């Protein structure tokens, strides 16, 4: 966790075999189904129906127990998902944004075969009031599908800083279409300054072969304008994985920079074991986290790769690099042994 270079061996094998003792090898097929670090708020099939109807709920904060409470009462006139059967099986899901990774989701039970479900359930979050007031509540309604293709039925988003906390009554709110800013990840989470370099096998000397395998160098310089989850700023650090490997062998991190929303890390990580063709199927995931004793809060991240949706012929959701991230990775692939500098926006992963 120092500011000097850290190095890790990362061997890619395309054929199943038993790795030798002490080897850093990993079978790609066995881990390629691993998803990214953080799931999207919009994890499901949300293109099938238009949002309609209303939801009744109330908000309260229990000062004694330091608990935020969302009393979900009922919904009316929801969209019908299965038109042939005239059926929807709705449930309500909540997130606190932007801190969804820390708090996780809360959801009600599923009410079957109704567009007017009654819940009368309380969704609870243990959270300090001071932290809560810099969050937004995202409350969404979904149709539950047994095969996991849940359909988005509508949502409402509330800025808790401007909420009237004396209002504890149940009120009706119209459900709206999904938030394009959240879906497209254009909410501002900060900007990371970094450089990357690929060193092909044997490119630094003929004898002995130097390096014996390819290397990817990642120089994390700094981050500007991080999300601030507390008045004192952020205690941030950066995690790094080379996907599809999410094992400890792939995991690296920087030291924690305290009380700073513009942290300077100046930390270099080196992954060896790369063949040039592996660059098309691997993805470097860099995520920024706010450190606390009990848990870490996700602040934003980037994924460097070709963004094809495939890794070694297998469909994966983490191969989702933006155009900027893809261009950055491609430039590295085309300029062996050269540092490529970039300034990339952090996003929801």
From TrEMBL:
<dbReference type="InterPro" id="IPR035892">
    <property type="entry name" value="C2_domain_sf"/>
</dbReference>
<protein>
    <recommendedName>
        <fullName>Synaptotagmin-like protein 2</fullName>
    </recommendedName>
</protein>
<keyword id="KW-0268">Exocytosis</keyword>
<keyword id="KW-0677">Repeat</keyword>
<dbReference type="GO" id="GO:0042043">
    <property type="term" value="F:neurexin family protein binding"/>
</dbReference>
<keyword id="KW-1003">Cell membrane</keyword>
<feature type="domain" description="C2">
    <location>
        <begin position="188"/>
        <end position="319"/>
    </location>
</feature>
<dbReference type="GO" id="GO:0070382">
    <property type="term" value="C:exocytic vesicle"/>
</dbReference>
<dbReference type="InterPro" id="IPR000008">
    <property type="entry name" value="C2_dom"/>
</dbReference>
<dbReference type="GO" id="GO:0005886">
    <property type="term" value="C:plasma membrane"/>
</dbReference>
<dbReference type="GO" id="GO:0006887">
    <property type="term" value="P:exocytosis"/>
</dbReference>
<dbReference type="InterPro" id="IPR043567">
    <property type="entry name" value="SYTL1-5_C2B"/>
</dbReference>
<keyword id="KW-0472">Membrane</keyword>
<dbReference type="Pfam" id="PF00168">
    <property type="entry name" value="C2"/>
</dbReference>
<feature type="domain" description="C2">
    <location>
        <begin position="51"/>
        <end position="173"/>
    </location>
</feature>
